[in-house]
Design a protein that fits this description.
Layout lengths: L2 H6 L2 E6 L5 E3 L15 E3 L1 H14 L1 E7 L3 H11 L7 E6 L16 E4 L10 H7 L5 E5 L1 H9 L6
Parallel strand pairs: 1-4, 1-6, 4-5, 6-7
Antiparallel strand pairs: 2-3
Length: 155
């Protein structure tokens, strides 16, 4: 099956690495926290919610980081034994589209990030500012986990 037809059958879930999938034991924002050897824990609440949501939506999970696709992949390699869902690809924060951009408008997707204060400025502005115009749901990690726990797995 080629990538284009594969993408048409799935939704996409983009999940941030630092302070979202990986929670650091020191406060604040921790870009590249994994490389700095900061004590961390896997966000198991979020991992469990992603598994439920991905199954319910036939979703493709894509991990991303402001640190870039290589950093996202590096972190994933360290934690993949603890993650029950498949990860399709790794992206940088500024490259959050499908592999086949011609399909992007037809794909519905969700986006999870710890750093979304801009969401209060209006979701439409946030989507445009972050290149998220095609992402129909944007969540903070706890919000995502709470939605799924309450039974809300729809887009």
């Amino acid at each position: 099956m080629n990538q284009s037809s594969h993408d048409h059958q799935h939704t996409h879930l983009y999940v941030d690495i630092d302070d979202t999938l990986i929670l650091y034991q020191r406060g604040g924002v921790n870009p590249y926290g994994f490389l700095e050897n900061i004590e961390w824990d896997l966000n198991t609440d979020l991992v469990d919610a992603i598994q439920v949501w991905a199954d319910a939506n036939n979703a493709i999970v894509r991990l991303w980081s402001g640190g870039g696709a290589k950093y996202a992949n590096h972190v994933y390699q360290q934690v993949k034994a603890q993650i029950p869902f498949n990860v399709d690809s790794f992206n940088s924060k500024f490259n959050l589209s499908s592999h086949d951009s011609s399909c992007e408008e037809q794909n519905v997707s969700a986006f999870i990030d710890d750093d979304v204060p801009w969401i209060t400025d209006g979701l439409d502005n946030a989507r445009l500012a972050w290149g998220l115009k095609n992402h129909i749901r944007v969540f903070e990690p706890q919000q995502f986990s709470d939605c799924v726990r309450s039974g809300d797995t729809r887009l």
